[in-house]
Amino acid sequence: MPPRRCNHPLNPASYSDDSETDDYDDEEEELNCTMRCISCEEDYDPDDAGTCKECYEEANEIEEEYKREIEELKAKVNFLKLSYPVEPNGHSNPYALTHTDVVLIPYGDSSSGSVHAHKAILVSRSPVFKAMLENDMEESRSGIIKIDDVSYDALSAFVNYLYTAETCLDDQMAFDLLVLAEKYEVKHLKAFCEKFLISGLNLDKAIANYAFAHQHNAKQLQDSALALIIDNMDRFTRCEEYADLKDTNPRVVVEIFEAYLAKQVNTASPLKL
Amino acid sequence: MPPRRCNHPLNPASYSDDSETDDYDDEEEELNCTMRCISCEEDYDPDDAGTCKECYEEANEIEEEYKREIEELKAKVNFLKLSYPVEPNGHSNPYALTHTDVVLIPYGDSSSGSVHAHKAILVSRSPVFKAMLENDMEESRSGIIKIDDVSYDALSAFVNYLYTAETCLDDQMAFDLLVLAEKYEVKHLKAFCEKFLISGLNLDKAIANYAFAHQHNAKQLQDSALALIIDNMDRFTRCEEYADLKDTNPRVVVEIFEAYLAKQVNTASPLKL
Q: Are B17 and B97 in a shared domain?
């Protein structure tokens, strides 16, 4: 593509609308201008002009500042996170974790072991553990916390997250960890699981996710799933999950219809009402 | 200031250098263009053009992504940092800090108390504490760590930083914490103190900072102080601190002169050599 050129008056007189444009012909060499984007280095038309040089340079400085701040925050995260040693089989290694003073037992999973931890960490991450371990309760005295209806793998991932703020998720693990995060009031983990589930949402998963989010007070996920469902109401009412949901939880179905109706009313043009 | 306008050929024929510029006169209305910066909304001259619209929009999206990443990292830092309760008088409150299993005693400061902490935190933040507390050493058995030549205030701020990655600094506290960070290999705190001292550097402080940095292996601070000194060698050799340093640490003075000479040689023009 040939470079786009435009003539522009360097002569201050030309700022006035009364300027003599005839003068340009004699000064063509001087008046020609090419605008080349400093960023992508492509020539551009004045209609596609973005910013002046000063704003470009300022934006560049701001970007550098953001990058520095990100690096500093990442270093802070690395400093603050605690290592929670996990063996190659995914099980925690109590021998590598020194000075532990509490054991968490997955009560619903008789097949595997327990998860060792430090009271100080559990207390700092969860108001529920704090109340449990700083008062004269059975768990505080015995140093044993039994947790119902949870697999060893989910409990281990949960405790690991309390140490590191990191975990690997698939849908099932995100559901399991969101339940634990809700129960023990670990907001950061709950938001992390919701974000993961929202990023993988599609219409096939929307009903299950909506019902789950409804049950566990996961507002962000609930809103995202609901938006997807009411955008596809016809398909929704024809799928198998809909029939199941109508049987098991008709109140949830009513809520979805109410949201659908509210959207219809809000988006209808005044003439049609 | 009147808007700056330039004529530009919308006619594709004008891309060629042979185009007839006479045509523009008849099409003035159509050909006029005003370039207004999308960011500051000021009109600008083509010579001051920055980026095209596409790059501006892309840069905006990247900026939004950086902002989101910063927010997420800040939330992660808040989740990971542990509270270390400090009373209004600046002293730690062992009763508010539950499940502690180690006490740090400032051996050089007989006036005040001790600092309570958790072995698990000290071990995770410092390789020196890790070696001390995970092996069969006196400190590991007794749960008491005596630290020489440190004030209670510095030790308390040091332990607080291990929990929170935060502290309030003045020059003296930055020196004290840098010494502890060096001794216990807490790199994050050492970098934090160096950055603080560098930000407040001036010629009056440069010699003391250089000598201190030299002694405690603080490379960033040492380089910054040295650069300031050799830019002002004449003033440096006339100040009181110079005379003291020559007496107490002549090797450091020699190093400064060597750096000065190296700079002279490097910046001299080839003709003068």
A: no
Q: Which residues of A touch B34 (CB under 8 A)?
A: 46
pLDDT in tens, B168-182: 999 999 999 999 999
Domain count, chain B: 3
Domain CATH for B137? 3.30.710.10
Over residues A43-86, the pLDDT tens digits come to 888 888 899 999 999 999 999 999 999 999 999 999 999 877 65
Q: Are residues A182 and A109 in the same domain?
A: yes
> Are A97 and A139 members of one domain?
yes
Question: What is the mean predicted confidence (pLDDT) over B213-224?
Answer: 96
Q: What is the pLDDT of residue A6?
A: 41
User: Is residue B195 situated within a structural domain?
Assistant: no
Q: Least CB-CB distance to A38: which of B8, B51, B191?
A: B51
B55 neighbourhood in chain A, CB within 8 Å: 37, 39-40, 50
Mean pLDDT of chain B: 82
| Domain end among A192, A215, A231 | A192
The answer for residues whose C-beta is within 8 angstroms of residue B148's C-beta and 6 or more apart is B107, B108
The answer to the question of residue B234 being in a domain is yes
Say yes or no: A116 contacts chain B, CB-CB below 8 A. no
**Residues A102 and A178 reside in one and the same domain:** yes
What are residue A43's DSSP bridge partners?
A36
B124 CB neighbour count, 10 Å cutoff: 21
CATH number of residue A215's parent domain: 1.25.40
Residue A223: give the domain boundaries: 201-273
**Is A4 close to B22, i.e. CB distance below 8 A?**
no
Please identify, among B132, B158, B188, the residue that sits at the C-terminal boundary of a domain. B188
Question: In the predicted model, is pLDDT for residue B226 greater than 60?
Answer: yes
Write down the pLDDT at residue A239: 87
